[in-house]
Amino acid sequence: MFRVEAVLFDFDGTLVALEIDFPLMRQRVNEILAQFSIPPQVVTAPFSWERIEQAAAWLARSDPLKAKVLEREGKAIIVGMEEEVAQIAVPPDDVLPTLLTLRARGIKVGLVTRNSMRAVQTVLRRHPLPFDAIATRDHVRPLKPHPAHLHFALKLLGLTIDAHCMPFASRQAKAAFVGDHPADVQVALRLGLVPVGKAQDDLTENALWRSGAFLVVRKVSELLHWLM
Q: What is the pLDDT of residue 170?
């Protein structure tokens, strides 16, 4: 059992099934970059949002107006795909009771997501979930897996983590971070948070263990056996 003051959750793939086709998103973004003749070596970021920003920053050096068009059109692809799936996203039945139980135990609950606040609100209007803090890409830069995103969410919850990012120590962690991607586990480890993986299948579970997860669950309700 871990005695923590807060639990941070990733959103899509962890609390709700936002079935975004990320390969298709990347393909569409790459098509936009090609239309603006962006050299491939300019975009090195692993995530599409940052790839667009890298490309726009490069283009702005020679054509600021064209760079704004690129950024607007590229990000519109991402926002549109997010909003489309947010309209039908549904949290599993155990999510709301789990969040309510954590809060009843005095544990603060935060949401940390690379999605927009608009997409989050689209889901929460249909399926209200009790968060003490929400940190989307509209609130902070840089985004997770950069530690600044989690730092921001923890600050909203009234918690501070050592600026030197002490490595995870199981009995000293103030908070846990639950996510479905190995990068979520790795940023939790960097910040000294309890790194919890949320797996959909055996393949993702193995990837989460390999990335250093201290715990991997298939349902968020399993957290209640470990956190107090």
A: 55
- Which helix (H) or strand (E) segment holds residue 204: the answer is helix 202-210
1 touches 227 (CB < 8 A): yes
pLDDT at residue 17, rounded to an integer: 84
Q: Are strands 108-112 and 194-198 parallel, antiparallel or unpaired?
A: unpaired
Q: Which helix (H) or strand (E) holds 54?
A: helix 48-60
User: Does residue 82 sit in helix, strand or coil?
Assistant: helix
Tell me the pLDDT tens digit for each residue of 193-216. 999 999 999 999 999 999 999 999
Cβ burial of 153 (10 Å; 0-12, 13-18, 19+) is buried
Positive or negative torsion for Cα 66, 79, 51, 142: positive
Rg, the chain, Cα only: 18
Cα separations in angstroms, 51 against 16, 43, 143: 25, 5, 13
Q: Give the integer Cα–Cα distance in Å for 9 and 15.
A: 7
DSSP β-ladder status, 108-112 and 6-9 = parallel
Q: Please name every residue paired with 175 in a beta bridge, in sequence order, or none if there are none.
A: 6
CA distance 114 to 139: 10
Give the whole-angstrom CA distance, residue 20 versus residue 31: 18
State how far the Cα of 43 lies from the Cα of 29, in Å rounded to an integer: 11
Is the CB of residue 49 less than 8 Å from the CB of residue 114? yes
Over range 18-46, report the average pLDDT. 94
